[in-house]
Design a protein that fits this description.
about 90 residues; alpha+beta; four-stranded antiparallel sheet; 2 helices; about 25% helix; about 45% strand; elongated
Length: about 90
């Protein structure tokens, strides 16, 4: 019986520590964006499947956070594990 409990705890610990990350471009514009371009981010975290009421990972918020007026690229990254998922929007430009 003790062995079953120990194995279950180990399996749950491994499951809780695993994570997955997906990222990719949403769109690219003709505006300039090189190595010296500004970068802004906006994100929110989902806990146990519940999204917060003030969740905002919009392009406008990310551009405002990076003081960007001309957007060059927009990427989105989603990182999740067993309990939480984080959605981040990344904007670059001038």
């Amino acid at each position: 019986m003790k062995r079953i409990i120990t194995n279950s705890l180990v399996a749950l610990s491994i499951l809780a520590l695993t994570s997955c990350s997906i990222s990719g471009p949403l769109f690219i514009t003709d505006n300039a964006g090189g190595t010296d371009s500004k970068k802004g981010e906006s994100s929110y975290t989902i806990v146990f499947g519940f999204m917060p009421f003030n969740a905002d990972a919009s392009i406008v918020t990310a551009a405002r956070n990076g003081d960007i007026t001309k957007v060059a690229t927009v990427d989105q990254k989603i990182t999740g594990n067993f309990f939480t998922t984080k959605v981040t929007t990344i904007v670059t430009g001038e």
